[in-house]
Amino acid sequence: MKIKKLINFGAHFVLGQFQSIFGLEITSTPTNRLALNQWLSKTKPLPNDANEILITAFRNQTWIEWGVYAACVFNTLGYKSTILYRSSEVKRYYSTKLSFLNFWKGVSLIPNITLIDVESADLDEKTRKEFLKKEDGYFAAAIAYDFHVEKDDILNGSKPEYFEAIETLRNKTAETTAVIARLLKDKTYHRFILYSGLISDSRGALDIAIALKQELVCIEGWSWRPGHIIYNYNAPALEYNVQGWMKILGEWNEQKEKEINSYIKFLDGEKVHEPGWLDNFYLVQRSKISAEFSPELKSFISGDAPIAILAPNVIGDSSLLNRETIFRSMRLWINEVIEYFKNNPDKKLIIRAHPAEVWVDGPKLVIRVGEYAKEISMNIPNVFVLDGKDKTNTFSLLPFSRVGLVWISSVGFDMVIRGIPVISAANAKYSGLGIVEEPINKEEYFNLLEKLMATQYRPHQQQIQKGKEFQYMVFKGFSFQAQGINYRANTCAIGKMPNQEEHDKFYRIVLGEETVHLTV
Fold first, then answer.
1. Does residue 415 contact residue 309 with C-beta atoms inside 8 Å?
2. Residue 518: CB partners within 8 Å, gap ≥ 6?
3. Any residues with CB less than 8 A from the CB of 430 and at least 6 apart, and which?
């Protein structure tokens, strides 16, 4: 199989090189440099007074290559670009000495491009000093993401590597923001395109741009749908404007109801006959809702004791950053909930670790919530843990449940849609919509849990409907297929993307040429 792949790669490489050398239409792009050659073939010189876009190309190959791709796309739309990069990252990722194979060597060939290495550029000293004075808490969430732990681990832990990482990020952020400040004091760009706005030094970049009144757009890959991107104006991409998007997506109708019903069937492991948007959708659940339970689970759910389902998130996911409210961390929340059930043996708790813990298995998963929950609930007979490897479909547990307990998981609104009341323990993206119960302190949280466990309360129709609208927005409505399917250069081709219409719409939106987003 490996030999066949190598032969196939070699054939495509030779074809792409031949097309590139002889000025033919480039249709074969197995390498990032051949992909860049295809993009360059679509660019053109622009007038000096063309509107200019500032783009960050930092952190990893995904965002470096996307930044370059975006600059080429913007060129075809009549905009010149300035790309901010780090020479140390470029050397790490693009080290080949052969210029015709080196991706970065070709970036300077983009017409009207300006390349600025933040590691050697002029700085605004006042801004640099300002960010060097930032408290540790300013950087804690980004460091937690890098180490795949929770922010509480960083702020209240004692590992020397955490403190070292904070100092490194403090200096890096000071450098980046000082370069951006120097640029923005000389000119205002038509748009500033920034990845994330949460991780690494992107928070500082966002803050200094807003302080200097530079309009910016934060973008982020949307892993639920391969090749999709989400965006947000003047705020982190993952802090998407829920009210604005739900308003712009309009009134509920039969088509949306049909699509959401198809999605629910998809989650249940049923065959969906409607082709299209679910074809490449990531399926978290690994078994059908009708699959038989294990004997141990069957035994646990038997009897009359009321059952709660606790569904945590995956620790290390950037969507968890800065979402804490009444509990300092997700693990402390789990701890306190387990303690509650330990003290209430007439009630039962099933902890269903996120199935995606298997999806991100490896170095990116430092803390497995299922293993953690098993360890702290050992010898507590009314607590049952399904770890991330367990294939039980989460939704198959709902008929036996009185209430769902979530941190910020999408399972929260999924449960409500299926008729189970949910209590959120943190600031979920669907907070404030009336979908779930949102206690404001621990006392209220556990009083509410006590109440819901003692009744057969079910969400009202308004909650269910709002849950469907949010579900539609997140999984169908607000992401755009505007990046390569593998989030790398070799699956991006100008004018030849899988959904070219949606792709083009996205780039017109971030440029401000097309309005989709409302500020609410």
1. yes
2. 241, 244, 247, 248
3. 242, 412, 413, 436, 467, 470
Model confidence pLDDT, tens digit, residues 203-228:
999 999 999 999 999 999 987 788 99
Q: Which two tokens stand for residue 122?
A: 């002029």
Query: How far are the Cα atoms of 138, 140, 268, 281, 430 from residue 240, in angstroms, in the given order?
Result: 21, 21, 27, 20, 10
Choices 3.30.70, 3.40.50, 2.60.40, 2.170.120: CATH for 42-247: 3.40.50
In angstroms, the Cα distances linking 125 to 85, 133, 134, 204, 512 are 19, 13, 15, 15, 32
Contact criterion met (CB below 8 Å) for 423 and 404? yes
Q: What is the pLDDT of residues 322-340, one digit of tens each?
A: 899 999 999 999 999 999 9
Q: Rg of the chain over CA atoms, in angstroms?
A: 25
pLDDT of 25 higher than 50: yes
Half-sphere exposure for 405 (CA within 13 Å, toward CB): 26
The residues, ordered by sequence, that sit 6+ positions from 300 with a Cβ below 8 Å of its Cβ are: 348, 350, 384
Cα 190 versus chain centre, distance: 26
Domain extent listing, the chain: 42-247, 254-477
- Residue 75 in contact with residue 81, Cβ under 8 Å? yes
Tell me what pLDDT residue 362 has.
57
Name the superfamily (CATH) of residues 254-477.
Answer: Glycogen Phosphorylase B; (3.40.50.2000)
pTM of the model: 0.92
Which DSSP letter does residue 475 get? I
Tens of pLDDT, residue by residue over 356-369, are 877 665 566 788 89
Say yes or no: do domains 42-247 and 254-477 share a fold.
Answer: yes
